[in-house]
Write a structure and sequence with these properties.
Layout lengths: L2 H11 L4 E2 H13 L5 H6 L13 E2 L1 H15 L15 H9 L5 H15 L3 E8 L2 E8 L10 H20 L7 E4 L8 H7 L3 E3 L4 E6 L11 H8 L4 H4 L8 H10 L8 H8 L3 H10 L4 H19 L4 H7 L5 H12 L3 H10 L1
Helix pairs in contact: 2-4, 5-6, 6-7, 11-14, 14-15, 15-16
Length: 350
């Protein structure tokens, strides 16, 4: 599918949430270099007149295409934020420096430390205080980043790190809070979509807060996966991370691999690195629920044990996570219209 058709199809399917203020920041990067932005706008199918409309919005895909074109054309992955350009591939070097880390915490710490080798205009730091981990971004020097780009710079640097960290563990890392040192913008609603956490404006510094326990998560990606991701890395920056497997499948696998199907919402959230509210919301968006998945897994396990084993019904009930044979029997009748014993006899009579 050609790029214009892809943009049109996606725009028709998804609402436009990205504010025109971010597009203006990219246009400002072109102006700083004395270059025309029209080619980048055309590549993303953004009408130039939209830059004059404060309420205008574009889709995440359009923003991705715009930034991709601009970063390549300007040869600057920072899009003019800093006192020196970050040539194309700079953030890829940060990713390669972090990919060999055994844990998420070490990967994030490496990213923050090595970011200082790219630019001294901002400083990233990971701090842990008890159960709270905080990633801070402090602007250093005078007038850097440029005042017209301060918002987009700080938002993008933190979104990039959060997206990469989520990709490393193949889970959308839940945040406790995202904070920024500027006044609440008119388009503040987009921050809720990007971070899915409470957002504070007017803070002392820009920061992301998360549970420190998440830093112990193992890095699941390798060099081969990184090479594939870097072929199209911008989605993890411009939109919330989407795990490689649909959540319904991941929950089903977690339930099926747990003895007696005894997972609770809390234990599942801990294993899948999700907040409880996010777990239930995402399952609902995918047309399912935790209870429905539990029933499906229990039903499948019960059918298998009744058909393939000679376990007494009481043991089958326990293996499927039921407190008693009686409650198992009621559920089984609801699933199949037959009592467990009758189902077993019918299967063996065939």
């Amino acid at each position: 599918m050609s790029t214009p058709l892809l943009v049109a199809a996606t725009a028709a399917q998804h609402p436009a949430h990205t504010p025109i203020a971010f597009v203006r920041s990219v246009a400002h990067a072109y102006a700083q270099r004395g270059m025309a932005v029209e080619g980048a706008l055309q590549a993303a199918q953004i009408a130039p007149q939209l830059l004059q409309e404060d309420s205008a919005r574009i889709t995440a895909l359009q923003m991705e295409l715009l930034c991709d074109h601009a970063m390549r054309e300007l040869d600057d992955e920072a899009l003019g934020w800093f006192s020196r350009r970050l040539p194309w591939g700079s953030y890829g070097l940060l990713a390669r420096a972090s990919i060999s880390s055994p844990s998420l915490g070490l990967a994030v710490a490496r990213w923050c430390r090595h970011h200082g080798l790219l630019t001294q205009d901002v400083a990233l730091q990971l701090q842990v205080d008890g159960s709270l981990a905080t990633i801070t971004l402090v602007v250093q020097g005078e007038g850097v980043p440029h005042a017209a780009m301060a918002e987009f710079c700080q938002l993008s640097v933190l979104r990039n790190l959060h997206g990469f960290a989520s990709w490393l563990v193949d889970a959308r890392l839940p945040l406790r809070r995202a904070s920024f040192p500027f006044a609440r913008p008119a388009h503040h609603g987009v921050y809720d979509l990007l971070f899915e956490a409470p957002v504070q404006f007017g803070a002392a510094v820009a920061s992301l807060e998360l549970d420190a326990a998440l830093l112990q998560l193992p890095v699941l990606r390798d060099e081969q996966a990184l090479n594939a991701m870097l072929q199209r890395a911008l989605p993890i920056q411009v939109r919330p991370y989407t795990p490689g497997q649909p959540l319904v499948q991941r929950v089903r696998q977690a339930l099926a691999s747990h003895p007696q199907c005894g997972h609770t919402a809390a234990s599942l959230c801990a294993q899948l690195h999700l907040a409880p509210r996010s777990l239930h919301r995402q399952l609902q968006q995918q047309g399912s629920s935790l209870q429905q998945l539990k029933d499906d897994v229990r039903r499948h396990r019960a059918l298998h044990l009744l058909h393939r084993s000679d376990l007494p019904l009481k043991r089958v009930a326990q293996a499927c996570g039921f407190a008693s044979e009686k409650s198992f029997g009621r559920a089984f009748v609801q699933w199949t219209g037959q009592a467990p014993g009758a189902y077993r006899q019918a299967q063996r009579a065939r």
